[in-house]
Structure formats: structure tokens, C-alpha cells
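Structure in, sequence out. Go:
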């Protein structure tokens, strides 16, 4: 099974819906250790993305991803804009010219996207950032590819790894971003960036696994 261009559009639309549904939740997480604006910023960004999708619906997957990324950079405030913008732009560079992706293509795109975030944010595993959800998700996806698992199983494992990584941020002391200013007081709170990253990958699982 392959992930088609239409599947990608469906995923982006579903992400916008999930972000809208979790807007207050993300903001509440950010209120504990950040600027209390992550939910509102992500919501604004993805609502703007929805207005851009009709213009790229007939383009290749790389163009769609890059358009999403550029839109998020220009509309999402705080660190989320550059980081999520970089995520989608790097995914777009990896999938340039493709009208569909095999699981190997998505694995490569997700790895490129994650590496872009790591470079942009200078964050590592354990720093209590979105990277804590993304790196395990990439690792699980790559392992699934090596085992030649189905797209559905690969997506499920990747989503579960992202969820576990998200939950693992709760006891951590933040070493990057606004939360790092709190020092030890940042422990005991789930990272909002890791949470939104999980939500997007979980939405990919739920949207594409039925493909």
C-alpha cells in the first residue's frame, strides 16, 4: 500500500482538525511550563494551512509539504513556527516530485523532518522537547521498514513510540526553550511540543492506516 497525494492532503486536513480539538489542551500544557500560547499558535497556523491546500492539491507531495511548512513559519508564533515549518519543509525536500510514497519514502521523509528540527532547535533526546516524541517515532518506523512490516503496522508502531516518548517527558527537567528557565520546576509536566508532535503522527496513523 502506498500513501497517495490525496492521502497526504487528507492527513493535513485531519491535523488541522485535531489541533483545533486539542487547542485548549495544548495551551494548558504550555501554561504550566511555557508561554501558554502553543495551542492557539498551532491552531492559527493550521487554519491558515487549510486555505492554502486548494492551491497545491494538484502538485507533488514535496510541494504540498513545503507549502505547509512555509505557511506555519509565517503564521505560528514562538518556537513552534520555525520548528514545525522546518519539519514540513524538510519532509517536502525528501519527497520532492513524488505523487505517492511507500513506507520507505515516509520513513525517509520523517527522518529528514526530524533531523531538520534537531538542527534548528539544537535539541537532543531527553531535553524535554518535541524531539523526544519524534526520535522514537523515526526509530520505530525504520525498524518496521527493516522488518518489512505493512504500512498499517509501521504507522501504528511509530505512533505508539511517539506517545511513549511524549509521556517520557513528564519527569524530565527541560534543557531547551522557555521551559528550561524553570529548572527543576519543569519536571512533572508533559511537554506541549512533544504532545503536538504525537498528535500529528497519531493522526497520520489513523488517516493512512485505512489506506
Amino acid at each position: 500500500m502506498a500513501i497517495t497525494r490525496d492521502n497526504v492532503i487528507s492527513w493535513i486536513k485531519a491535523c488541522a482538525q485535531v489541533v483545533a480539538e486539542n487547542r485548549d489542551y495544548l495551551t494548558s500544557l504550555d501554561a504550566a511550563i511555557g508561554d501558554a500560547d502553543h495551542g492557539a499558535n498551532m491552531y492559527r497556523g493550521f487554519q491558515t494551512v487549510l486555505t492554502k491546500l486548494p492551491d497545491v492539491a494538484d502538485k507533488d507531495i514535496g510541494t504540498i509539504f513545503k507549502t505547509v511548512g512555509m505557511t506555519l513559519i509565517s503564521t505560528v508564533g514562538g518556537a513552534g513556527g520555525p520548528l514545525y515549518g522546518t519539519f514540513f519543509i524538510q519532509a517536502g525536500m525528501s519527497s520532492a516530485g513524488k505523487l505517492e510514497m511507500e513506507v520507505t519514502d515516509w520513513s525517509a521523509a520523517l527522518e529528514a523532518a526530524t533531523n531538520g528540527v534537531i538542527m534548528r532547535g539544537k535539541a537532543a533526546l531527553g531535553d524535554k522537547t518535541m524531539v523526544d516524541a519524534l526520535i522514537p517515532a523515526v526509530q520505530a518506523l525504520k525498524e518496521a521498514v527493516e522488518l518489512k512490516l505493512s504500512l498499517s503496522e509501521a504507522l501504528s508502531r511509530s505512533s505508539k513510540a511517539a506517545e511513549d516518548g511524549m509521556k517520557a517527558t513528564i519527569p524530565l527537567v527541560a534543557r531547551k526553550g522557555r521551559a528550561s528557565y524553570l529548572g527543576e520546576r519543569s519536571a512533572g509536566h508533559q511537554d506541549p511540543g512533544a504532545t503536538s508532535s504525537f498528535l500529528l503522527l497519531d493522526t497520520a496513523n489513523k488517516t493512512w492506516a485505512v489506506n
